[in-house]
Structure formats: structure tokens, C-alpha cells
Write a structure and sequence with these properties.
Number of domains: 1
Strand content: 15-25%
CATH superfamily: Aldolase class I
Helix content: 25-40%
Oligomer: single chain
Number of strands: 16
Number of helices: 9
Bound molecules: succinic acid
CATH architecture: Alpha-Beta Barrel
Length: about 325
């Protein structure tokens, strides 16, 4: 990686990051599988696969289907349970020096609270509350589809979690008004918002004439969803401009990442791209830095939400960057 010509440090509430590129939950387990490709401590952070209280085998197979410019997954929150996660995965992340975002998922508010309590003293930088997994037994468990259910989970987790650890609510794009949900979770105590989770989708297998996935429906990810994700980041930045956003959805290059920053994200997660290019997150750090420099930004923070400014405001920023101070 070349030396950044731009200050690319950023923050997600009280979590300070040297660069804005993280993994996306569920696409690199707890980070260990990326370690043969690069030092995971070089990333802005690792976001772990959402963990639940108990070990869970997930949904029936097949669990993945290819789609145009994307993929559908129906994993069903498979995982080792929080105790094993703490003992093996979180310990490894801590020893590796990785900045860590722990993602949690629950069947109900009580399970989210139990997870927040169990993780209270564990080493981590941020807690991502996954209230938007599409692959659950009933749609009532997609808490982020309903402002009241989302509020209930987030306020309970905020009370139970370590107050020194920021909590981010992870939202789904499958709602009528994502700005409304964002305002609700902000009022409930979320320190920031991760967006977006996958979109609910379906593929029919033309050989079996049945749904391709064992779970019938699945979550759509990859470049196909990027414009939807960007639209959500844009709308949520307008709805809660004071809250930091972690943006994701089909990011493959530094140019893609820059669009998310300009729309209002303070940092980005790279997910589906790692399945065909495990080095994508580390490559995107350098590419994003170059893209910022090429456009005359001196720092990434200046670019956050920049697309919301008028042309005149943007011109004033660049004029100030090139102005020669009086007396020199
Ligand atoms: C899954 O495990 O089914 C995916 C999790 C998610 O999309 O939140």
C-alpha cells in the first residue's frame, strides 16, 4: 500500500479509524480467513458475522445463488454461539491487533440484551446491532421494518451495552421510508447507522422448477444493489445528519467507496467483493485515497456528505484548498 497523500482517518462516533474501509458482516467470518491475504490490522476494521446467543446451524441448503451482478444468500445466521465466539474469534481478533466491530443478532429483544451483557467487558470498538437479517423464520423478526420494534431493540441494547462502546443499528432497504426508521433508532440511542443489509430476493431453478434456495427467499448483495444502497445513505444522511453512517452495498473499487462517502458515509464496508477478490478491502483503501487526491480533497472527512453541497459551496471549498495564505 502506498503512503496516503490524503488524510483518510475517520471516526464512527467515538471509534477512531486510521482509514475508512472495513469488512461487511457475514462475508469474512471473523476475519481470520482474510489473514493469509493481508494483515487484518491494516483495515479500518473487521465487522464480524452476526453472532447469536446459542450455536446455530442456519437454513437448509442450497444457501447461495448467483444473480446478475450479485448473489443471493440464505444462510440463516449460522454461527458458533457467543461463548465460542468470545473464546476463539474475538480473542484472535484482539491478538491480531484488528479493530473490531461485533455484530449481534437476536430472535427477540431479550436475546439482543443478553448478547450486549455477555459482550460488555469484551475487547471491541463498536457493536453493530443487526436488526435487519432477511433470513429469519418470520418477517416480524426483521425489526428494522418497523420503527417501534427497531426502537425497542436499540433502546434496550443501549441500556445493556458498555456505555464506552458505540452502537450502530443495521438497517434494511426493504422499507417505505428509511429516513423515518433512521430517526427512530437515533432517538432510541443509536450512535450511528450501518446500511444497507441485503434486499429480499428470489431465484427459481429452471431445472427443478422450484426456488433455488433451500430457504426459498434470500438476501441480494453485490454491485446490483449499489444504487439502492447509495440512495439509502443519501436519504439517511439527510434524515439524521448528525449521525455517522457506515455505508455498504456492492462496493468493489475506490470509486464506488468514494460515492458512498460523498453521499454521507463516514466509512464503508466491503462484502460480496471479497468472495472473488479477498484483497479487495485493502486495495480499496489505496484506491480511495488516490480518488480523493485526484479530486483535490485534503482529507476524507471533508468529503463526507460533499454531494449534498451546492455547486457554489463545493467551489468555495476547493478555492480555499488552493488559496495562498496572506503574507507568504
Ligand atoms: C444470514 O446469516 O442469513 C445473513 C445475515 C444478514 O443478512 O443479516
Amino acid at each position: 500500500m502506498g503512503t496516503p497523500t490524503v488524510d483518510i482517518s475517520t471516526s464512527l462516533a467515538s471509534f477512531e479509524l486510521p482509514n475508512p474501509v472495513l469488512t461487511a458482516s457475514g462475508c469474512a467470518a471473523a476475519g481470520r480467513e482474510l489473514s493469509p491475504f493481508f494483515d487484518v490490522a491494516e483495515l479500518g476494521g473487521i465487522v464480524t458475522k452476526s453472532i447469536m446467543m446459542k450455536p446455530r446451524s442456519g437454513r437448509s441448503t442450497p444457501r447461495m445463488a448467483e444473480t446478475p451482478s450479485g448473489m443471493l444468500n440464505s444462510i440463516g445466521l449460522q454461527g458458533p454461539g457467543v461463548d465460542s465466539f468470545i473464546e476463539h474469534d474475538l480473542k484472535w481478533l484482539h491478538e491480531s491487533g484488528a479493530r473490531t466491530v461485533v455484530s449481534i443478532a437476536g430472535h427477540n429483544t431479550d436475546e439482543f440484551v443478553a448478547l450486549a451483557r455477555r459482550l460488555y467487558d469484551q475487547p471491541m470498538d463498536l457493536l453493530e446491532v443487526n436488526i435487519s437479517c432477511p433470513n429469519v423464520e418470520n418477517r416480524g423478526q426483521v425489526f428494522a421494518c418497523d420503527a417501534i420494534a427497531a426502537t425497542r431493540v436499540i433502546s434496550a441494547v443501549r441500556r445493556a451495552a458498555n456505555p464506552n462502546v458505540p452502537i450502530f443499528a443495521k438497517l434494511t432497504p426493504d422499507v417505505t421510508d428509511i429516513g423515518y426508521i433512521a430517526r427512530a433508532v437515533a432517538e432510541a440511542g443509536a450512535d450511528g447507522i450501518s446500511l444497507i443489509n441485503t434486499l429480499l430476493g428470489l431465484v427459481i431453478d429452471l431445472d427443478t422448477l422450484r426456488p433455488a434456495l433451500g430457504g426459498v427467499t434470500g438476501g441480494l448483495s453485490g454491485p446490483a444493489i449499489r444504487p439502492v444502497a447509495l440512495r439509502c445513505v443519501w436519504q439517511v444522511h439527510q434524515a439524521v445528519p448528525h449521525l455517522p453512517l457506515l455505508g455498504m452495498g456492492g462496493i468493489k473499487t475506490g470509486k464506488d467507496a468514494l460515492q458512498f462517502i460523498l453521499a454521507g458515509a463516514s466509512a464503508v464496508s466491503v462484502g460480496t467483493a471479497v468472495f472473488h477478490d479477498p484483497t479487495a478491502p485493502i486495495r480499496i483503501i489505496a484506491e480511495l485515497s488516490d480518488e480523493l487526491a485526484a479530486r483535490g480533497f485534503s482529507s476524507l472527512r471533508d468529503a463526507i456528505g460533499f454531494a449534498h453541497l451546492s455547486s457554489e459551496q463545493q467551489a468555495a471549498y476547493f478555492a480555499a484548498q488552493t488559496a495562498v495564505p496572506v503574507g507568504r
